[in-house]
Write a structure and sequence with these properties.
With 185 residues, the protein is α+β, with helices and mostly antiparallel strands. The protein has five helices and five strands; from the N terminus they run E-E-H-H-H-E-E-E-H-H. Strands 2-1-5-4-3 form a five-stranded antiparallel β-sheet, sandwiched between helices. Strand 3 and strand 4 form a beta hairpin. Helix 4 packs antiparallel against helix 5. The longest helix has 54 residues. The protein is rod-shaped, with a radius of gyration of 34 Å. The two termini are 62 Å apart. 13% of the residues are buried.
């Protein structure tokens, strides 16, 4: 866990050395301004995370926002982005005004990459299943269906030759023809 402490009255932020190293920096390379965090947020995450944070500060006791929980990407010193899960609570003064916020960040990059891989594998599996279904359907249409039509025709010819001499056998063949046609359909 990487700690971050924010004091609202001074707008100062304390980023722990662990937090700084999480994104590739030494302790002396990052200051204590709020913009140290916002300028490193991924452009796609900046708006939603900032809006959620502002809503939390506006109504910190609202169960929808309390505690503040978010997942976002932070720019690492090496130019890559790290996925971060953050959880924070705000401390209020006696008047209910935010005084400070204490949060923990966890690097979940590996988990996110694993989730992306699983999603890609799931998509590949669905594509493979669809391809196999189409192959089976084509095979059934091209071979099995043709065989069933041939059996129906043979049974029809047999039924015609037996209808006068053995009506019971002709009825059994007629039932068999119906079953084969049903299977073909």
């Amino acid at each position: 866990f990487r700690r971050v402490l924010f004091r609202s009255e001074t707008n100062a932020v304390f980023y722990s050395p662990e937090w700084k190293s999480q994104i590739g920096y030494r302790n002396d390379e990052i200051g204590n301004g709020f913009d140290e965090w916002t300028t490193r947020l991924h452009p796609d995450d900046l708006g939603p995370v900032s809006a959620k944070y502002a809503a939390y500060l506006k109504d910190p006791l609202n169960p929808m926002f309390n505690p503040y929980v978010a997942e976002f990407r932070l720019l690492h010193k090496d130019g890559s982005y790290r996925w971060i899960h953050t959880r924070a609570n705000i401390l209020l003064d006696t008047a209910g005004k935010p005084v400070r916020m204490l949060g923990c960040n966890t690097d979940i990059t590996e988990r996110k990459h694993t989730e992306e891989q699983l999603q890609r594998l799931s998509q590949r599996l669905l594509t493979a299943e669809d391809t196999e279904r189409r192959r089976i359907a084509k095979e059934l249409h091209d071979s099995t269906a043709q065989d069933l039509v041939a059996v129906t025709m043979s049974l029809g010819a047999l039924a015609e030759s037996l209808s006068a001499t053995d009506p019971k056998a002709a009825d059994i063949i007629a039932d068999s023809i119906a079953l084969v046609e049903n299977a073909a359909n």
